[in-house]
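Before a colleague's protein record goes any further, I have to sign it off. What it holds is a sequence and that sequence's fold in token form. My question to you is simply how this chain folds and whether the tokens agree. Thanks in advance; the entry in question is below:
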Amino acid sequence: MTVRHLRTFGATGIALVLSVQASGAQPTMTRDGLNRADLTGVEGMEVLISHRENPPGATLPLDVHPGDEHMIVVEGASFETVTAEAAAFPAGISRSFAHGVVLGGITVTGDAPLVLHNVHIVDKGKPTTVPVAAE
């Protein structure tokens, strides 16, 4: 069974599906929770592991996290930044983003989806992402 077929979120078995709007289209970004657990030895923190698929045309809005985010690009894709710069995340790279760093603001371009595995180490009970207004 591949990770794509896993549709569990800890003991709850809930999959979260978010709709994201992009210019003229409404592709669906999916985020499937794979695991949620308390961070050992650190009170009030938890670890969330998820699988995220962002189809062409999906916009990842600007946001921040109440903790650290680590991502691995499973399937790479090209994208355009909020300032219209073209770039790409190739498969196999990883990135880390510290607590409170504004990220996102990209739109997936081309024919391939951007597929990520994310690990969030966040304040327990807070939203995983907090939207940030574009300046």
